[in-house]
Structure formats: C-alpha cells, structure tokens
C-alpha cells in the first residue's frame, strides 16, 4: 500500500510540473498583427537568425538565447518561421502576460 501511495504522489507531481509547459506548447499559433515568440536552438543566437532569414521584425529590446519576440505580419509568417528552423512559434501576448503577472 505505501508504494502505491508514493507512485500516485510522484505521478501527481509530474503532472503538476508538466502542465504549464503543455499549455504553452499546445496553444494556437499567433494571428496576423500580434506578437509571436520564436523558440529555436540556443547556440549561435539561432532564434534571431531564424527571424532575420524569415524577413520579419523583432519586437522589444530584450532577447533570450533561444527565444525572440517577433511581429506576425502575414498569414504565412508562422509557416516561414518553421521552414527556417524555428522549434516553436508561440503566442507572444500570452507569454508577456505570464511574465508580467
């Protein structure tokens, strides 16, 4: 009986830890005119290179190692970002709200 309880507790903790990440990864792509967060490999400032190769404009003065905010300008912007090496393109507005609160 105690091993079963430990297993259930571990599964509950794992589910609690994974929920925020799953929420971010499963959200819809940003729409035209909104800010997106481009996540890419962390070496060589790759997210910045993905945005530059996609001919899109960065938003904000702060950049992370594997994340850059970008303005989604057309319906094809998200597809172009993925084609140029983005791992994820998340809704930047939701990310900014999480960071402020």
UniProtKB/TrEMBL annotation:
What is the top-level taxon of the source organism?
Bacteria
Cross-referenced PROSITE patterns: PROKAR_LIPOPROTEIN
Protein's name in the database = Lipoprotein
Q: Which organism is it from?
A: Sulfitobacter guttiformis
